[in-house]
Amino acid sequence: MAGMTTRIPRSATARLAACALCVLGVLGAAGCASTAVATGDKPPEIERARAEPAQVHVQGDTVYYTGNFSKASSAAFDAAVAGIARGQITRLVISSGGGDTVAGRHVGRWVRGMGLVVEVDVICFSSCADYIFPAGRARVIRADAFVGWHGNERQFHLLAARKGISLADLLSQYVPKDASPEQRTAFFRDFEETTKVTMKDEADFYAKLGLNDAFAVCAVGDILEKRPGYAGQIGWGFSLADMARLGITNTVYLGNGAYEDSARFRKYLVRISAEECLAMLK
């Protein structure tokens, strides 16, 4: 066909990466189950947390963010907060199922720069938990809301290291069977070049927060599925005390009883301790 090249389009690269997350076991069945939250039957409040672009507005001293992270969501966010100076806003109320990591860090850096309290309404998962929740100067989790993780930028590299294989070997079986050798080479090169940049950006982000990224990546793979009591949860979570042990301090839960005993936490997340998380990375 005219105009064909030997390179796999970046959109295809992204799809392959997403596919690999599930099939490779980087997220394992728990990570794949998160697609059920994204595409299957779900409560309307979870559906709203997937809005594309995100719905963002400012009311009083609060920014309200409902939806995913993407280029379009970043544009909506930037338009909503344009001209706001530090001190005018004190709080970000968010409900998000996650999304693009670069877009997530964009909002996270703004939250950090503004010195905001992050308040979770219903759900803060994936990129929201990775970058928005820890960026707050303090954190509030509303009654029966939850904060959950299922990996970050370096998850492929971590899983390859755990298996004792190269990144290319880890991903090779997910390149289309009809791809030429040149296309396969281009895919691996694009993937490594892209993740090299995004991993550095993520490392810089966490360094400025004074955090280790263990909380966001420790349980990738099939670790969760092997735990007693696993029932198809989409990711992992921590008690408030364990969050604090991992550096995410100044967090309060507004519901009755312990946060980790709340209904949505138990439905969507596997609880792990800070000690278990750190041990997984040794």
Structural description of this entry:
It is built from 13 helices and nine strands. With 282 residues, the chain is of the alpha/beta class. The chain has a domain at 42-147 and 236-280: 2-enoyl-CoA Hydratase, Chain A, domain 1 (Alpha-Beta Complex), CATH 3.90.226.
Q: Report Rg.
A: 19 Å
Mean pLDDT value = 87
Structural class: alpha/beta
CATH class term of one domain: Alpha Beta
List the total number of helices: 13
Question: How many angstroms does the end-to-end distance come to?
Answer: 50 Å
Principal-axis shape? globular
Q: What is the CATH-assigned architecture of one domain?
A: Alpha-Beta Complex
Strand content: 5-15%
Main beta-sheet annotation: 7 strands, mixed
- In helices, the fraction of residues equals 40-55%
* CATH third-tier fold name of one domain: 2-enoyl-CoA Hydratase, Chain A, domain 1
Uncertain ranges: 1-40
Would you count the extended β strands for me?
A: 9
Strand/helix succession: HHHEEHEHEHEEHHHHEHEHEH
Topology, element by element:
Blueprint: H1 10-23, H2 28-39, H3 44-48, E1 55-59, E2 62-66, H4 71-81, E3 91-96, H5 101-114, E4 117-125, H6 127-132, E5 138-141, E6 146-148, H7 155-163, H8 167-171, H9 181-209, H10 214-217, E7 235-237, H11 240-245, E8 251-253, H12 263-268, E9 269-271, H13 274-280
Parallel strand pairs: 2-3, 3-4, 4-5, 4-6, 5-8, 7-9
Antiparallel strand pairs: 1-2
Helix pairs in contact: 4-5, 5-9
